[in-house]
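[agent] plan:
  1. take the single chain provided in the ticket
  2. run structure prediction with default settings
  3. attach structure tokens to the ticket
  4. add a short note for the reviewer (M.T.)
[agent] executing step 1
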Amino acid sequence: MIIKAIGSFKDFLLVNALTKTAAFFRAKVQPYRDMMNKVNKVVMVSAGVMLLVASVLKTHQLLTEPILSKGFWESWLFFVIQIPLELGLSIWLLSGLFRKAGWLVATVSFGIFIVVTLQKGLVGAASCGCFGRVHVNPWITLTTIDIPLFMGLLVFRPVGYKLLPPPWPSAKHFFSVAVPTFIVLGVLVPVLVFNKAPETTEDYEVLDASQWTGDEMPLLDHIDIGEVLRNGISFILFYHHDCPDCRVAIPMYEQMARDYEVFEQGIQFAFIKGPPFEESEEPIVPADTICYTGSLDEEKEWIFLSPLMVVTVDGIVMKSWEVETPSFEEILESLGG
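[agent] step 2 finished; step 3 output follows
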């Protein structure tokens, strides 16, 4: 009996000691948890605001400017899918609902943004494409937005929250966020789908070179060396300074012009720059080029996929290649020789 009592007393002391120890550590850890959660809320709200701004600017671009792309990831359809997802995530982060799940999705998303923006920076793109028609250098976006927010999310995780409920948020909080969000997204998607921007306005024009064959090239009056190209045989390469494929094509055609001595054969080779007209650190056309160089005027924004090769005879278009780099033999075939 005495031994049992002593054993029970020892258990009591042990439990009491463990309870006090746990309370002590909770008291010590609580300020850390509070600090982590406060900073996490700031980071998640910042990420939400950034995504909200990006989705609004992309919506404006999609409704006011045609989207040309070389693949699905830059296509009109991808924008239609991306914008609602981005807007939905921004509202989720700003609302604070299901905080840990939102934090996880945001962290993965900004990790993906880093990869995409880094790739655009490495190929020399003029804009990251994150903010619609507002062009921001990919390196600026990467170093001031994507990496800081990703690191902030990674370091300052929500502490004390479960990934999935329970507990559930209050019905008032949940429905005050969910109902307006579903209404906005439900209206936004049809608006994006059924309101494609026109291909020609006073401010811009989409160039469709496939429609030029057999007619005078309509851009001759808008090229600063248009009069030179109006006579004789001309091989004209339209390019963008931030186009990776153009960086490959121009040196190839420069060498081709030298190897085949095209000017001695009465052929004019020209590199024509299209907007945006910002120059990269490495000029895409060599300073010692033997080819003509020029640019489209700024009367409006000329939208086209590059590289765009056009062959003309006395200004009449014989053939064109969009996002292709035809060989010298293919170009000659378009002339019937």
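[agent] step 4 note for reviewer: Residues 68 and 181 are 29 Å apart (CA to CA).
[agent] ticket updated
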